[in-house]
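Hi all, a correction to my earlier message: I attached the wrong file for Hsp20/alpha crystallin family protein. Here's the right sequence:
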Amino acid sequence: MLMRTDPFRELDRLSHQVFGPGTWSRPAAMPMDAYRAGDQFVVAFDLPGVSPEAIELDVERNVLTVKAERRPEATGEHVEMQVAERPHGVYSRQLFLGDTLDTDHVHASYEAGVLTLRIPIAEKAKPRRISIAGAENEQREINA
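and the right structure:
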């Protein structure tokens, strides 16, 4: 269903731990859960503090791209930041979706800082029964 394709994520996590934020490592990836529920595939991304208008979703050739921007809340001429530990900036994540998913009918919802995508399983990928014709059935049809 979903193919993991970010081999450098663990390297980024380790570099962030060793060197701290702001070094060569990429911005932190948005954490996600992915699971199959009946005839659909569900992917949930944690995006706390991101407004729905700052989220972009694109699907191109079975590649789903989620891009979000978390902007600082306290900005302006008379604002003097005392502590700034919460990450800001643009975050993006790409998922390679299998051919068994119907990318034309992705449903997205955003509630309480969680972006939830529901992707239906394609009809061609659902299990179906195949009838088997035997030699007796063929002879009956020929003789009848």
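Sorry for the mix-up. The chain is about 15% helix and 35% strand.
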